[in-house]
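#onboarding

Welcome to the new folks! Below is a worked example of what a typical request in this channel looks like: someone posts a single protein sequence, and someone else replies with the predicted structure as tokens. Don't worry about understanding the tokens yet, we'll cover that in week two.

Example request:
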Amino acid sequence: MYFGPFFFDTKEIFLILAAVLLGLAMILGWDLLWFEPQTLLTVAILMLITKGLLPAIHNEAFFILAIITILLTLYLSAFQVVLFYFISFLFFRLLRVI
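Example response:
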């Protein structure tokens, strides 16, 4: 989808919508069952930035990394999840998986 000079893929639109809904949930105080909204919002913004900066990412490997990162937010703190995401993303880039 073209929005002015910018092109948004469906994955970026989904991540933007998820970030907006998570921000709305934080503002209105909605309870997400097992997840902490602030951590999920941080992870969604990080994924949006990395997906936007590197459009040639293989979607399957990035999807697996995203699912594992989101599931880790159930058990680990926000710092550990962000650290895991960046280290895994770095290793995937170095090993040319992504």
